[in-house]
Backbone:
């Protein structure tokens, strides 16, 4: 699967030059990036580079051709890891705190004073009592209730948080698990927040 | 009827934001009656003194600085930036052009100029912020009219557009992630769809702006740097190729839109 993604990825990069209007190719963009962060510490430099998925999604503006989309989705599905005990539903109360917190990994967040947050409310409605929610993503109010709290749906939610690109190639939502932003336990807590009958999301 | 119900529920969710927006709107109306009630005008005023004062190792003023319309000409200059400058052989925006003039004309050391270009909350603006606010205020009432005559200007626009859609960092964000659709919000904060000229024209010309929540002026360079901070990238260099190219993209989206700088933002 990885090989497939690499293969399509290279084809995609070759297409970049063909797409460019003024002879702009990826090398020009990458040089500008390098030149614009000249004082970067070595451990931060990796954040400036793109992985293959980011490259492909940038090139196709989140609308990749079908063959590339399938390769991205397959690679994303393969990236998903589950907790050792197999429990995908953690503690919804911890999940609620994580859903409210946008903390983590900004350069002003070091040394860390809290765990990274999922910041779900920035983009989604969840607990209907919380009025301060964003609309970049769909409303998730009553998400679990509407799906009869089915375990298969809980797994789908876990997967969606870990790597949303398994379901939608080039989804806007961050790959919280695949990128190591949230831990497996945190993702299980967030899954419980969305899927537990006791969670205010489903009240 | 359904439309009305939708309107009512949207109104409920946005109530808190509306309250803030209403207060800001009241303030903006006051500013129209008296532009000097915007605290950013203190920075503009100080910027004007800094522009005229003989300063730096060479003890000269910036009045020989060519912002694109000839040495010392500040009226309307901001409306036509970024642009290509033959002496620098580069496309520069207002802020990188000011740094260029302070280095080449006044003899300041570039590294010292760009080390701390942004003020902290509730401090008066840095010299670069004051100068930027002054020059931008001298295009208030004009409309954005960026040049695309020089190949490097067209290259900067193409680069800016590519950067706008470049996904990166531990959260996979691009500028387009938040600014690629109409009517979206982060929490209660409305997001402009910056690739849509009708929306870009309403918002780009407000910067530099006084930020009420910070108690300081924020320049276009700082605004873009702040987005990259939120994207979890390191602090981007002041006046970098990336920030200038993104400014070129935004100003071209806002072409024909009014410059109301210095604006007033939450």
Residues:
């Amino acid at each position: 699967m990885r090989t497939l993604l690499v293969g399509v990825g290279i084809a995609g990069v070759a297409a970049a030059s063909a797409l460019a209007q003024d002879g702009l190719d990826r090398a020009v963009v990458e040089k500008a990036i390098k030149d614009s962060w000249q004082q970067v510490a070595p451990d931060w430099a990796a954040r400036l580079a793109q992985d293959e998925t980011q490259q492909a999604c940038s090139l196709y503006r989140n609308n990749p051709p079908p063959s590339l989309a399938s390769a991205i989705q397959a690679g994303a599905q393969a990236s998903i890891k589950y907790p050792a005990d197999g429990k995908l539903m953690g503690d919804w109360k911890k999940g609620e705190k994580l859903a409210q917190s946008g903390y983590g990994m900004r350069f002003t967040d070091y040394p860390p004073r809290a765990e990274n947050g999922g910041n779900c409310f920035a983009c989604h409605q969840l607990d209907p009592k919380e009025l301060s929610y964003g609309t970049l993503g769909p409303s998730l109010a009553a998400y679990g209730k509407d799906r009869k709290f089915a375990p298969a749906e809980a797994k789908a939610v876990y997967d969606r948080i870990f790597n949303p690109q398994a379901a939608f190639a080039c989804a806007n939502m961050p790959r919280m698990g695949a990128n190591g932003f949230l831990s497996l336990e945190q993702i299980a807590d967030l899954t419980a927040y969305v899927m537990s009958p006791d969670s205010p999301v489903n009240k | 009827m359904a439309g009305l119900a939708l309107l009512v529920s949207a109104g409920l969710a946005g109530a808190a934001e509306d309250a803030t927006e209403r207060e800001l709107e009241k303030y903006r109306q006051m500013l129209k009656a008296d532009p000097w009630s915007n605290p950013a005008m203190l920075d503009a005023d100080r910027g004007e003194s800094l522009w005229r004062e003989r300063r730096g190792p060479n003890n000269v003023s910036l009045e020989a600085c060519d912002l694109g319309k000839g040495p010392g000409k500040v009226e309307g200059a901001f409306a036509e930036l970024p642009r290509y400058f033959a002496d620098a052989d580069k496309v520069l925006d207002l802020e990188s052009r000011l740094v260029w003039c302070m280095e080449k004309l006044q003899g300041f050391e570039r590294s010292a100029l760009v080390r701390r270009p942004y003020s902290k909350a509730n401090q008066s603006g840095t010299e670069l912020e004051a100068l930027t606010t002054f020059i931008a205020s001298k295009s208030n009432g004009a409309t954005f009219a960026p040049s695309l005559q020089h190949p490097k200007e067209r290259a900067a626009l193409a680069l800016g557009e590519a950067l706008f859609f470049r996904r990166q960092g531990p959260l996979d964000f691009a500028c387009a992630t938040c600014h690629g659709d109409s009517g979206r919000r982060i929490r209660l904060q409305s997001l402009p769809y910056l690739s849509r000229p009708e929306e870009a024209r309403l918002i780009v010309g407000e910067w530099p702006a006084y930020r009420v929540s910070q108690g300081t002026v924020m320049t276009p360079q700082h605004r873009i740097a702040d987005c990259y901070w939120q994207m979890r990238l390191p602090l981007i260099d002041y006046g970098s190729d990336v920030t200038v190219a993104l400014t070129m993209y935004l100003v071209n989206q806002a072409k024909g839109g009014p410059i109301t700088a210095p604006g007033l933002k939450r």
Q: What stands out?
A: DSSP finds nine helices and no strands in chain A. Residues 2-19 of chain A form the longest helix (18 residues). Chain A touches chain B at residues 20-22, 24, 28-29, 32-33, 35-41, 44, 47-50, 53-54, 57-58, 61-62, 105-108, 121-123, 131-136, 172, 174-175, 179-181 (CB under 8 Å).
